[in-house]
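hey can u check if this looks right to u? its 291 residues, i copy pasted from the old doc so theres a chance i mangled smth
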Amino acid sequence: MKFTKMHGLGNDYVYVNCFAEPLAGVDLPELARRVSDRNFGIGGDGLILIMPSERADFQMRVFNNDGSEAKNCGNGLRCVSKFVYDHGLTDRERFTVETLGGIVSPEVTVGTDGKVELITIDMGEPRLDPGAIPLQLTEGGRQAVVNQPIDVDGRTFQMTAVSMGNPHAVLIEETVSDEDVLRYGPLIESHQWFPERTNVEFIQVLNNQEILFRVWERGSGVTLACGTGACAAVVAAVLNGKTDRHVTVHLAGGDLLIEWRDADNHVYMTGPATEVFSGQYLGEIPYLDRG
C-alpha cells in the first residue's frame, strides 16, 4: 500500500490516495491502528483516506489511531486539499470535500513553485443545538449550551458545547496547563453527557484577537493541533463575550487564523499543511472476514 505522511501544525496522519489504492475489503479500523503505531507502524494520529465522492469533488474518511472513525478533521482537510492539488487530482483552486460531518469548501493559495502554501476552508455553520452535537444534559431544552458547569473528578469546569461536524467541549480557563489536559481531557471525552464522546479544548483568552489552545482529541488523546477544535474554540469564545470574531489561535504546533463571519454565520479556517514523505507500507493488510 502506497501512502503519504502529512501534518497540519504537527497533527500528523497517514494519507492514502484511494483513487490509486481502493482498499476494497480492508478492515479500515484495524489498518488505522496498525499504521498509526509509532513503534511498529508508520506512526501518526490516525489514517486518512482520499476517495471518490458522488456528492462532492472528493471524499475524506478519517480514522483515529484507536480505530474509531471521526466525522471531520480540520487539519486533515487542509492536508487533503494540498494533496489533491499538488498531486494533480484537480487543477482548481476551489473545490468541495465530503466528510461524515458534511460537505466543506476549501480554497488553496498556490506559491510560485506551483505548490499549495496555505488553505482556507469554509467549515460551514457551527451547530449549537444539543441534539446536533450530540449532547444529552440531564435537563431538557434545545438552547445552546454556553458556560455550562460540568463536574469531573472533584473539579467543576465551565463548558461551552459546539459541533463543527464533530463534537467539542470548550473550557475557558484562566491558565492552560498540560497537566489538566492529561488528567481531565479523557474524563470529559467519555462523560455521560456525550453519547458519542467528545473532543475537549482547554483555552486561555490572551486578548480579544488571540487565544492559547490545548486539546484532548476524541480517539487520539493529546495532539499538537486540531482544526475543528480551533474553530469550536473561537465560536465558544465569541458566545462567551471573550473575543472578536477574527482570532489567531495559538496551538502547540503553530497558529491558525479563524473567522466566524457575521455575513453568513460560517466559520473559516486558514493555515498550512505539510507533506513529509511518501513510501510503501510493507506490513500485513488486515482484511474483513469474507466467509
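The chain has a mean pLDDT of 96.
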